[in-house]
Amino acid sequence: MKQWIRDWSIAAKLFALQLVMIVALATLAVVWIWADARTDVERDAAAKSLAVAETLAADPFVETSLGTGDPTARLQPYAVEVMADAGVDFITIMAPDRTRYTHPDPAQIGKEFLGNIDRALEGDAFTETYTGTLGPSVRAVVPVETDAGDVIALVAVGVTVSNTEVALGGRVATVIGAALAMTGIGAVIAWLLSRYLRRVTWGRGAEEMSRMFSYYEGVLHSIGEGLVLQDRSNAIVLYNDRAAELLGLPRRERRDPGHVVPLADLDLPPAVAEVFGRSDAVVDEIAITPTHVLVIDRDVIVSQERGRGGGLIGSVTTLRDHTELQELTGELETMTTLSDALRSQAHEFANRLHTIIALIELDRAADAAALASSELALSQALADRLLSAVEEPVLLALLLGKAAQASERGIAFDIDLPARLEATSVPARDLITIVGNLIDNALDAAAATPTPRVDVAVELMAGELRIAVSDSGGGPADADRVFDLGVTTKRAAGHGIGLALVRQTVVRLGGRIGVHGSTFEVTLPVTTPSSAPAAAAQEVPDV
């Protein structure tokens, strides 16, 4: 039985519950109205009995008949006539000692009256419900007094309870009819509501809906991509843990049904808030936040319900983190640049080697020696300088690769380094992102000038690493927007992300970046192996 009820849909359970509640309320209403109506009928019966009894007690005919030798002979026909006219069930006129002079049943005349008469003997009229010879009745007892105030007889007038119930029949029938009508109307309303719920829940039961919710919650919070649900007004309805991590939002409890939050109430990164606030049905863009490079895909959600509830109900947005991919791409490009440069140099050296051999065969040994030593000395001097000054292997490899690339493209490449550059706490990937992108942009800008030249200056002082890259070009036209995503001076597609990544990385590391003409300058807070022991010594308290 329990399993059968559990299999009911939410609509069926709601319909059954509402029907039971309506029937229960209707039953309570009938009982209460019936009890109230019974009280009113008994009150009316008591008032009617008292009025008839007081009228008879004040009737001179009654007092005159009591003074005769046989009161019953005169009072019994009179009492019967009054009962018929007044619509009461009995009129009993009795002596103070309870002896009946009148009664609907002539056999009871002369016998003792059953009931309370003490208050009436004291001169007070009263009403009560009492079970006498005719059964339970609502009665009134009134004394018959002389002018001197002496009680010479008592008049009891009553209506039996069975007759009061007959009077209740009409009221109860009306009440029951109203209850049935209320039950029917309530059942129709509950049925219409159950149809609506069955339609919106697709006929699923409560247990099934609970299981589906648990499954969907598990899927929503376990996937590696961020998911954000928005309604028609672009307000946030729900987001999973990954989205909270990528967007810097507080995590929601899994059992928290959540509530709609306007975009203005959330501290979203400006690039993401701009995409989320757009009315575009479909979005496929890249947004750079202070900590992540996000690929944002948004699509609409269309309800399959027919009627008013169908159509567009919101959108679902997928967030994919491409930060590491962009960093790895930068590393790959750097390694590719170095590899291409080495391959080009190998080809160039092969050509020079052939030339040197030809000069030797032509007995031009001095010219061959000069040609071989000139290029070798220049390349070796640069390599020796970098190897002796730079202790950061990643930065060393990057600068060597970019120098070879600049030489291949015919661009003068000058590196200004201190006598010794210690290894720093800046992660290798961040160095590649910052220095690699700045030099690449400088090489591209310098290549379009008559005397192409790129200068790179790196220095370490006062706990800060300063990197400056300048070129022979005229600098960006709009220095304020050069770091925005998609802003580029190149015509080819796929550009406009490098400098945005540079700014993101610098901001994440707590540094500064600025543009002065064609010079891009980056300052990063760093620690070096030599400064770490000194800082640790300062933190040791004196003993």
Order of helices and strands: HHHHEHEEEHHEEHHEEEHHHEHEEHEEH
Shape verdict: rod-shaped
Widest beta sheet: strand line-up: 6-5-9-8-7
Gap between N and C termini: 78 Å
Strand content: 15-25%
Number of strands: 14
Rg, rounded, reads 53 Å
- Residue share in helix: 40-55%
Report on the biggest sheet.
Answer: 5 strands, antiparallel
Mean pLDDT, to the nearest integer, reads 75
Structural category: alpha+beta
The residue ranges in which pLDDT falls below 50 over 5 or more consecutive positions are 491-495, 534-543
- Count of runs of 4 or more consecutive helical residues: 15
Summarize the structure.
The protein has helices at 2-6, 10-57, 60-66, 71-86, 118-121, 161-200, 206-222, 241-247, 270-276, 323-361, 365-389, 393-408, 428-446, 498-508, 531-539, and strands spanning 90-94, 126-132, 135-145, 151-160, 226-231, 236-239, 283-288, 293-303, 311-321, 412-416, 453-461, 464-471, 512-516, 519-525. It is of the alpha+beta class.
